[in-house]
Design goal:
Distance between the termini: 61 Å
Radius of gyration: 26 Å
Largest sheet: none
Helix content: 55-70%
Number of strands: 0
Shape: rod-shaped
Order of helices and strands: HHHHHHHH
Structural class: mainly alpha
Number of helices: 8
Length: 153
């Protein structure tokens, strides 16, 4: 049964491969009560996958209206938790990069290439090391020689 196939975000992506006739048959031949049940089950699964509530409601409504034609074509299953983890890491890195730049600004003018290099770093541990070096450095050149020696190449 269709419901048994839906256990993860990857399973939703695979629904794009379900033959069109299968979904049309469910749409045509299923009683309203079954469509409501399918909509509820899919809603629970989507909720567990951290899909925004508005998308869940729209998706379930489409099922209950028997509008299966393009139901899964435009659905992009994604993991909100993973997106949040990535965003959190980006925020941490940006904050640490700004600390490094703040220490360096106290030592003089930070060149645009150096600023871009620091802001583009995605490794929070490396940025922690850089912030410690920047806090103790006597000059921007000292920081560069210890942390980013190839910046001027």
């Amino acid at each position: 049964m269709l419901i048994d196939k839906l256990r993860s975000a990857a399973d939703f992506r695979q629904l794009q491969e379900v033959p069109d006739g299968y979904l049309e048959e469910i749409s045509r031949n299923s009683p309203d009560s079954l469509l409501q049940l399918i909509a509820k089950i899919i809603s629970v699964l989507l909720h567990r996958l951290n899909v925004p509530k508005e998308e869940i409601v729209a998706f379930a409504d489409q099922i209950e209206r028997r509008d299966f034609a393009m139901l899964f074509e435009n659905f992009e299953a994604y993991d909100v938790q993973e997106t949040r983890r990535i965003s959190k890491n980006e925020g941490i890195c940006l904050g640490k990069a700004q600390i490094v730049l703040s220490f360096l600004a106290d030592l003089g003018d930070v060149t645009e290439p150096l600023k871009e290099r620091i802001l583009s770093e995605k490794d929070p541990e490396l940025l922690t090391v850089w912030s410690k070096v920047a806090a103790k450095a006597a000059s921007i050149d000292e920081f560069i020689s210890q942390c980013i020696p190839n910046i001027n190449e």
